[in-house]
Amino acid sequence: MHTSKAIYPGSFDPLTNGHLDLISRGSKFVDELVVAVLANEDKHPLFSVAERVEMLTEATHHFGNVTIATFDGLLVDFARKQEARIVLRGIRAISDYEFELQMALMNRRLSPDLETLFLIPAEEYSYVSSRLIKQVFRLGGSVTDLVPPIVLERMKQRG
Ligand code: PNS
Q: How far is the CA of 75 from the centre of ligand 1 (A)?
């Protein structure tokens, strides 16, 4: 039997409704979707990797085929260990394209059998990024409806 397994990698600091939208879309066309949080990237994250995993777990528990994992080192090595042939990434606007293209081609060079699939998130989240969410929240603006309730709650505790 042929089953499909995809990795959706990212920093998820914090998880946004745009990410969640992508997880929802992705989970519908693969058998298994592993959301993989990159560990040890940012020296000053808003949330620790463990907290991000907790929030992702809570926000995705209703999807039957989504699991949460962490990885460090190369994404292609993690994908190989997971026996996944697909990497999912979202493209919001043309501005995302250049970096995504570089990553996809580098990953293809490192692991020719790993295919990157791009999904377009819902229009209403096309301007939402973790970076802007952090900035707006830090400066006192509302991010309600742009992040899942569990993330908003944790941000308020933090803020
Ligand atoms: O959500 P982000 O921060 O845009 O995600 C970037 C991520 C985690 C997908 C990317 O930085 C990554 O895959 N890092 C792992 C290191 C790696 O494999 N680098 C080579 C591919 S360019």
A: 7
Q: Which two tokens stand for residue 141?
A: 């603006």
Q: DSSP string of 22-71?
A: HHHHHHTTSSEEEEEEEPS--SS-SS-HHHHHHHHHHHHTT-TTEEEEEE
Shortest-distance Cα residue to atom 16 of ligand 1:
74
**Whose Cα sits closest to atom 13 in ligand 1?**
75
Pocket lining: 105 vs ligand 1, CB cutoff 6 Å: no
Q: pLDDT digit string (tens) for 58-105?
A: 999 999 999 999 999 999 999 999 999 999 999 999 999 999 999 999
pTM attached to this predicted model:
0.96
Helix (H, G, I), strand (E, B) or coil at 120: coil
Assess whether the C-beta atom of 107 lies below 6 angstroms from ligand 1. Answer: yes
